[in-house]
Amino acid sequence: MTKYYINPNVKKGHINKELHGNFSEHLGRCIYEGIYVGEDSDIPNVNGMRKDVVEALKNMELPVLRWPGGCFADEYHWKDGIGPKEQRKKMINTHWGGVIEDNSFGTHEFMELCRQVGCKPYVCGNMGSGTVQEMSEWVEYMTFDGVSPMADKRAENGQKDSWTLDYFGVGNENWGCGGCMTPEYYANEYRRYQTYVRNYHPERKINKIACGPNADDYEWTETLMKIAGRFMDGLSLHYYTIPDDWAKKGSATQFDQDSWYRTLRKTLHMETLLKKHGSIMDKYDSEKKIGLVVDEWGTWFDVEEGTNPGFLYQQNTMRDAMVAAINLNLFQKHCDRVKMANIAQLVNVLQAVILTEGAEMVLTPTYYVFDMYKQHREGELIDSNLCTEQIGSESEMVPNLSECASWKDGKLFITMANLDLQKSYDIEAELADFTVKDCKARILKGKMNAHNTFDTSQQVKTETFDAVQLGGGKVSFTIPPCSVLALTLEK
User: Fold this and answer.
1) Would you tell me the crossing angle of helices 318-333 and 257-284 to the nearest 10 degrees?
2) DSSP SS3 for 356
3) Fewer CB within 10 Å, N- or C-terminus of the chain?
4) Whole-angstrom Cα distance, residue 114 to residue 136?
5) DSSP bridge pairs for 172
6) Catalytic (active site) residue 287
7) pLDDT digits (tens, 9 = 90+) for 334-351
């Protein structure tokens, strides 16, 4: 019997709903075909946005969406994406496949998507190839009410009222595709650029996100916090789970048990990154006013056979679901410092929550994990301790279980993932000062490479889980191998 201790009386932090955010880039079929099909498409749409995708995102209660990139952001010039579509400039998407970008999806379309879904917008500005004036005018165009050149231009393009812009990223991956900058150079440029990301409405603050480190580049974090920390609301972090190496990442669906455990071990490295970058941030921000923003994370495998290598289209299995569960548990466990996270990406790219093909749509195992975890959002992280053991192969050892517990609206919410491919575990949870009168639970389970296709779209989905025993201050259940479980307990 595995012991699990939970104390709802000890609150350890607030779980922002933005921890469950997503990322959409002008990459492959994410925006075009995946989200936006145009008003004249035979695929059912509202103002060009696919009705099926929007409905799925509303059901998942997507809280925040990052756009337009990614590497694309630092070659994107926003004025090319406004005004009559037939007059918008065309460009080559040099980062992703060398295809033509016709800019038919721009600022107005992104804000319309956020309106339909009901999520907050997170816009990433062009610092790599753009100017301070360009970035300043974009913020004015989106957020200023009154008489000004950009506000007038916005009205001419059909939007009289300004939008609420919750988050603005000043550049993306400026250590790499965003300009190959040194941390000192970027820190000083960030100070300059962010000056002109103005809050035109005192009651509608724009949270400024600085480009943070690539994985374990701790020098970047140290330099940014030292030089520019007092000018930022968040510092980004990018880390992808790649089971092998960049040259040969491995198949998304054809893999063995060693690859399963190696993938999960590399995913668990996220906790080391959160702790070490968080510790550096603590030196300059002991009150934790600056959020660590993990705005690119997820699995990265070889593309599916026969697809454009620059489109990064991959399938999504129970292995991806496990990666999502582990990461969301970690972000929530570190919610005192981690304030937002955005999985890469929304549709048809990398660890997508949705796949589309023509008029068809499939929800991935990752989608169901986000849907199961949504009750954590805006809850209070509570003290929990699970007795785990090491499993896996000799060189690829991981804890057998991952968990998180939160409290909201008088209810206790628990998520747990069983990383073991063969073994079930009997769990006995002891709850301090909490007598359970009712429990509702859902489970996601399957073989390690189980996934949904357009022919078998329901192979992996959540099911009701009834095998929970209640007794006073204890809750007992058996979690099957390769599964993710979510329980809601009422007092």
Assistant:
1) 20
2) strand
3) N
4) 22
5) none
6) no
7) 999 999 999 999 999 999
